[in-house]
């Protein structure tokens, strides 16, 4: 098997917000096609860690290397490769799903936008609502569309911040199927989740972030069971 | 450079599409402008000749105060669903966000002017006899400067707690040189005086526009940058 390339590398990232140290010395790497789940208690700094990686926040110290290039704020080429799903949907309430996708498609210089948007809308089950302004959408429908938005530009790395929140059973299965398809095509995936079941089915590796530090990582490899993983998490978070 | 422009057009197109769908902002602005004209037409007797002197001032009062209503929404509307973060995380330059917003705001204010200025002339019984070209040029230069500064400050104040109040408080003092020039030039154009006299004012306005455009474009990046 050929050695896989490193897609994302964080070197000693620290981040201060105000006078609080949110991230302390985070060092992490993600290989091409690998899926890493980041878990941890609320307020541990998981979302902040994502924002630094995406380039929305400048780390106070350290370096982030994505696909061989250093992430700085002004690097359109790098941002093109990242699909970022945040807490919010980033969608415009007055526009329809199709218009929203077209808009982001244009910004991401997607070719063949109309065909791709239609396909994605069918895939996430919103095709019937394609011409309805999304103001009236439920949380789960918004999340489905937000997922479609992220996938539209076919990013090399997916960064999903709690993607399962607000989704119904069917949509969770759908999202998992999409993620697994992406894994097969060599997309690297970073995922934040509190849902251990999903983490267990999706991730190759799990890292625990606690009080701004990566306290432990574990390789799943299909060997570790769900209960075993939960025990491990509890032990690490409660202990010390 | 070309991508900055095309991204700006995409963003402006999105804003305008969203605006024309609901017509929320533009109708509020038009109603506000109409009310101002109406109130002033009662306050001053339009048959009195001296009243013509207030028309140039009124043109700009309408533009600025109706415009501020639109500017207030320009960036706060991006806060729904945190869309601004979506733009910032996208592969686009901060300059295209600024340019796109300037284009969209400029279009909306121009539409409001197209409706309200003729109404103003009619209600004040004013017959336009001057050079339309110069008048339009003066209006465009003044409006552009107003939008350039206003869009920048609207982005700056959008994160503040009382953004609707902060914007005019920051904006109006900065606009005063532009507005003095704009009112003077408009007066000359409307009174059909020798247009040569307006050219100096127009030059001042163009210089103001260019200077603030360059400054705002450069500084906008720092507003968009997270801490
Ligand atoms: N803009 C900010 N200024 C100051 N502190 C912040 C800011 N944003 C987040 N924080 C703090 O950073 C910590 C981590 O937040 P976050 O990354 O959102 O946690 P989570 O792991 O739940 O996603 C929290 O304690 C939060 O209070
Ligand atoms: Mg979070």
Element pattern of chain A in H and E: EEEHEEHEHHHEHEHEEH
Question: Which CATH top level class of chain A fits?
Answer: Alpha Beta
Biggest sheet layout of chain A: 6 strands, mixed
Q: From the coordinates shown, what is the CATH architecture of chain A?
A: 3-Layer(aba) Sandwich
Given as residue ranges, the uncertain stretches of chain A (5+ residues, pLDDT < 50) are: none
Helix content of chain B: over 70%
Number of domains of chain B: 1
Element-by-element helix/strand order of chain B: HHHHHHHH
Determine the number of helices of chain B (DSSP H or I, runs of at least 4 residues): 8
Named once each, the bound ligands are: adenosine-5'-diphosphate, magnesium ion
Structural description of this entry:
Chain B: Keywords: Cell inner membrane, Cell membrane, Cytochrome c-type biogenesis, Membrane, Transmembrane, Transmembrane helix, Transport. Chain B: One of its GO terms (biological process) is cytochrome complex assembly. The complex is a heterodimer of chains A (240) and B (227). Chain A is 36% helix and 27% strand. Chain A has helices at 46-54, 76-81, 97-107, 113-123, 139-152, 169-184, 196-202, 226-238; strands spanning 6-17, 20-31, 35-39, 61-66, 69-70, 82-85, 157-161, 188-192, 205-210, 213-219. Chain A has a six-stranded mixed beta sheet with strand order 6-7-8-3-9-10, with helices on both faces. The longest helix of chain A is centred in the C-terminal third of the chain and has 16 residues, at 169-184. Chain B has one domain. Chain B contains eight helices and no strands. Chain B has helices at 2-22, 24-43, 55-76, 83-89, 94-123, 132-157, 163-190, 196-224. Chain B is globular and about 55 Å long. Classes of the chains: A alpha/beta (240), B mainly alpha (227).
């Amino acid at each position: 098997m050929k050695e896989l390339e490193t897609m994302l590398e964080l070197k000693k990232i620290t981040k201060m917000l105000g006078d609080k140290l949110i991230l302390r010395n985070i060092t992490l790497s993600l290989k091409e096609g690998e899926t890493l789940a980041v878990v941890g208690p609320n307020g541990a700094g998981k979302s902040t860690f994502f924002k630094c990686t995406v380039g929305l926040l400048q780390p106070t110290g350290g370096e982030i290397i994505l696909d061989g290039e250093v992430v700085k704020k002004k690097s359109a080429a790098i941002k093109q490769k990242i699909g970022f799903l945040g807490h919010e949907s980033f969608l415009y309430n007055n526009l329809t799903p199709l218009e929203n996708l077209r808009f982001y498609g244009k910004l991401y210089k997607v070719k063949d936008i109309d065909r791709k948007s239609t396909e994605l809308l069918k895939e996430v089950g919103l095709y019937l609502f394609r011409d309805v302004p999304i103001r009236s959408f439920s949380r789960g429908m918004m999340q489905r569309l937000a997922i479609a938005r992220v996938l539209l530009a076919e990013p090399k790395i997916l960064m999903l911040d709690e993607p399962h929140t607000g989704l119904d059973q069917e949509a969770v299965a759908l999202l998992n199927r999409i993620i697994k398809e992406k894994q097969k095509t060599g997309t690297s995936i970073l995922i934040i989740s509190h849902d251990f079941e999903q983490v267990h089915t999706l991730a190759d590796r799990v890292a625990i972030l606690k009080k701004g530090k990566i306290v432990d990582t574990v390789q799943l490899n299909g060997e570790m069971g769900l209960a075993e993983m939960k025990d491990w998490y509890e032990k690490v978070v409660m202990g010390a | 450079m070309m991508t900055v422009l095309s991204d700006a057009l995409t963003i402006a197109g999105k804003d305008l599409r969203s605006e024309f769908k609901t017509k929320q902002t533009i109708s509020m602005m038009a109603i506000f402008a109409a009310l101002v004209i109406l109130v002033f037409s009662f306050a001053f007797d339009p048959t009195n000749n001296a009243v013509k002197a207030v028309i140039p001032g009124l043109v700009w009062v309408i533009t600025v105060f109706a415009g501020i209503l639109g500017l207030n929404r320009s960036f706060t509307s991006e806060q729904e669903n945190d869309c601004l973060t979506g733009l910032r995380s996208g592969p686009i330059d901060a300059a295209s966000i600024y340019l796109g917003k300037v284009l969209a705001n400029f279009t909306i204010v121009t539409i409001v002017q197209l409706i309200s200025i003729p109404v103003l002339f009619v209600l004040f019984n004013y017959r336009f006899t001057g050079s339309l070209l110069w008048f339009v040029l003066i209006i465009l230069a003044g409006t552009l400067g107003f939008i350039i500064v206003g869009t920048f400050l609207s982005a700056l104040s959008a994160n503040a707690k009382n953004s609707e109040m902060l914007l005019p408080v920051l904006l109006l003092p900065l606009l005063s040189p532009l507005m003095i020039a704009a009112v003077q030039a408009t007066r000359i154009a409307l009174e059909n005086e020798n247009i040569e006299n307006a050219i100096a004012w127009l030059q001042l306005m163009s210089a103001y526009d260019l200077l603030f455009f360059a400054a705002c474009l450069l500084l906008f990046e720092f507003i968009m940058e997270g801490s």
